[in-house]
């Protein structure tokens, strides 16, 4: 089997807010197809957001509605990337942890949630 393209798709009740958030964070653009939005970066389709009117945000790190998947985004400056994410509508779930607090001891990271509540990590080596 040959896979021709890999695309991450997030569910959201507010497709416009979720797709605008990810496009802003990744430096991309949004193509609005109604209940489906495509996020492209440098002309390449990298993410989709589909309308899910009954979407329930995951509860991080534990809860009845636990996360099932999250993104790790490796950046040059965790603090700057965090401020950028917050400015786009993210909320902080866990403040930056030093490499000594990380299980592998090589990276500092912080955890945020998108407007629809999907967790993601910003990390820096």
Structural overview:
The structure is a single chain. With 125 residues, the protein is an alpha/beta fold. The protein has 2 domains: 53 residues, 2,3-Dihydroxybiphenyl 1,2-Dioxygenase, domain 1 (Roll); 57 residues, 2,3-Dihydroxybiphenyl 1,2-Dioxygenase, domain 1 (Roll). 18% of the residues lie in helices and 37% in strands. The strands form 2 sheets. It has a 4-stranded mixed beta sheet with strand order 1-4-3-2, covered by helices on one side. A 4-stranded mixed beta sheet has the order 5-8-7-6, with helices on one face. A hairpin with a 3-residue loop joins strand 2 and strand 3. The longest helix is centred in the first third of the chain and has 12 residues. It is globular.
Quick overview:
Helix content is 18%, strand content 37%.
Task: Provide keyphrases for this structure.
single chain, about 120 residues, alpha/beta, 2,3-Dihydroxybiphenyl 1,2-Dioxygenase, domain 1, 2 domains, 4-stranded mixed sheet, 8 strands
List the helices and strands and how they pair.
Blueprint: E1 8-12, H1 15-26, E2 29-32, E3 36-41, E4 44-51, E5 71-74, H2 78-87, E6 91-97, E7 108-113, E8 119-124
Parallel strand pairs: 1-4, 5-8
Antiparallel strand pairs: 2-3, 3-4, 6-7, 7-8
Task: Count up the domains.
Answer: 2
Describe the strand arrangement of the main beta sheet, using strand numbers. 1-4-3-2
- Unreliable runs: none
Reported CATH architecture of the largest domain: Roll
Average per-residue pLDDT, rounded, comes to 90
Number of helices: 2
Secondary-structure content class: alpha/beta
CATH topology of the largest domain: 2,3-Dihydroxybiphenyl 1,2-Dioxygenase, domain 1
Q: Give me the strand/helix succession.
A: EHEEEEHEEE
**Fraction of residues in helix:** 10-25%
CATH superfamily of the largest domain: 2,3-Dihydroxybiphenyl 1,2-Dioxygenase, domain 1
Query: Which band does the percent of strand residues land in?
Result: 35-45%
Distance between the termini: 35 Å
